[in-house]
Every structure is written in C-alpha cells, then in structure tokens.
Design goal:
The complex is a heterodimer of chains A (about 180) and B (about 100). Chain A contains eight helices and no strands. Chain A has about 180 residues and is an all-alpha fold. Chain A has a single domain, classed as Four Helix Bundle (Hemerythrin (Met), subunit A). Classes of the chains: A mainly alpha (about 180), B mainly alpha (about 100). Chains A and B meet through helix 1, helix 2, helix 3, helix 6 and helix 7 of A and helix 1, helix 2 and helix 3 of B.
Chain lengths: ~180, ~100
C-alpha cells in the first residue's frame, strides 16, 4: 500500500512545482488541478474516501473551474490563437502523462484494498456527519455566515457600473 | 492500512505548504499568488486528514470541510477583486497596483 502513497505524493509535488513556476496561467491551472487530484488519491489512501470525493468535486471541479473561467475571461483576444495551440499535443502531454500515472495508481490501490478485509477503523461519512452537526454545530453556523458574506462581497465587487457607451467606442474617443 | 511513519506524511504536507509559500513570495502575477494560497490551504487540510486518520477520529475530516468552505469564499472574493483590478489597471502585476503606497 505504501508505494501508492509515494507515487501520488511525487505526482502532487511535481505538479505543484510546475504549477507555481509556469509562465502560462492556463497550463499552471491544469497542473494545479492535477495536484489536487493527486492529493485526493492521498486522501483515499489515508482512509478518508468521503473527503477524497469532496476534494475532486469541490476543489478540482468547482474552485479550479472558476479559476480557469476567470483566467480565460481576462485575455479575451487570445482565444483564437489559443484554440489552435490546444490542438497540438505538446501542451497537454505532460499533465496527461502524470494524470495517467495517477489513474493507474488509484486503480491498483483499489484492487489491493479490495483484497484486504476492511474493518470498522475506516471513518465512515456517517460519523463525519454526526460529528459535524452535533459537536461542531456552532462552527457550521459560522461557516454559513461566512459563505453569506462571501456571496454578498462577490456580488458587490463583481457588479460593474452601467456604461452608457461601449468601451471600444470610448477608447476611440479617448485616442482622438 | 498505510504503514508510512507519521513524520513522512507530515513532511509531504510541509513540502506542499512550502511550495505554496514560495509561490506567494516569488510570483507577482495575482492569479498565481491566489493559486499558491490555494495550495497552502490544501496542505493545511492535508495535515488535518493525516492527523484524523492517525488517531481514527472524524474531527479531522470535519475540519477539512470547514477549510473547503473558507477556500471557496476566499476564491470567489479574490477572483472578483482580480476582475476589478484588471478592469481598472489593465494589468495583473501586483507591483503595478501601488496607488495606496506613500511616496517618501
């Protein structure tokens, strides 16, 4: 079992290094998603399958997709060129290879763990839920308030003033 | 099931946290700084999970759920701020946004 942990940890560290040292933001985000997937494999190996699923769904699925969405929104003019670039394999071959390693790692780990009889020492999601809504009820309510402030803040910051004129026309007027 | 010593697991989380810290300190692009903060938050959650699986308690996973909520709020606010900054300054360089800086 230990070798799976080391493989996933190595993939996570390599992809994190690539993510923070990349020049192109989209490439770096791809590597960051891969890093989160590797960490979710580590979570699975650490007997937390529920958290592994949450990591894939919320971190890699929601937060990172939001990142990619905003990053693509910021450089609007480049998308035509980018689309041509995405079709050549040189860009996605390294993340794809690392992701394939991770997939084989997970499949092998699943196969091995099925042969081992799972006792009741694995923490079930039921226990997590009971603990979350009994011991940590106050913290859950505080998190709800935090999410509420997040929604209001994002709405306030994200709303732009209504423009009378199109921004390209405005630029044209400013230049002449 | 894992028989890896606890030190190595903590070391893995520590390396990830350090990478995130280096990213925040070195990169000047705001998007990369936000990404590095995500890495740091995630490694903090990893430590909680490691501790929870070591002592066989559900508290570590509960804490990770809270970290997840905090990360989601932080990302949404941070990305809204990035959009506003880009809208005003037409750049993502953190050093270019120095209007609040005092000129000595």
């Amino acid at each position: 079992m230990n070798i799976f942990f080391y493989i996933a940890a190595t993939v996570a560290i390599i992809s994190t290094i690539m993510a923070i040292s990349g020049r192109n933001a989209i490439h770096a985000l791809l590597f960051l998603i891969l890093s989160f997937l590797a960490i979710s494999v580590v979570f699975y190996l650490l007997d937390a399958p529920f958290i592994a699923a949450l990591e894939v769904i919320i971190y890699a699925g929601a937060i990172m997709v939001l990142f990619i969405f905003v990053t693509m929104m910021l450089n609007v003019g480049l998308e035509r060129k980018m689309e041509n670039k995405w079709l050549n394999p040189r860009m996605w071959i390294v993340p794809g290879l690392l992701a394939a390693i991770l997939l084989f790692d997970l499949i092998l780990a699943l196969k091995v763990s099925r042969t081992i009889p799972v006792g009741n020492q694995v923490i079930q999601p039921k226990q997590v839920g009971i603990s979350l809504f009994s011991t940590y009820l106050l913290a859950v309510e505080m998190t709800a308030i935090l999410l509420m402030t997040g929604v209001i803040g994002a709405y306030h910051l994200g709303s732009q003033k209504k423009k009378v004129m199109h921004r390209f026309l405005e630029k044209k007027i400013k230049t002449c | 099931m894992l028989t890896i010593p606890l030190e190595i697991q903590i070391l893995f989380a520590g390396i990830l946290f350090l990478l995130g810290l280096i990213g925040v300190l070195v990169r000047r692009n705001i998007i990369f700084m936000l990404m590095s903060i995500e890495v740091m938050l995630n490694s903090a959650g990893l430590v909680f999970i490691i501790a929870g699986s070591h002592w066989k308690q559900p508290d570590g996973q509960v804490m990770f759920i809270f970290i997840l909520a905090v990360a989601a709020v932080e990302v949404s606010i941070g990305l809204a701020l990035i959009l506003q900054v880009y809208h005003h300054y037409k750049t993502l360089d953190a050093d270019a946004i120095n209007k609040l800086k005092d000129t000595i």
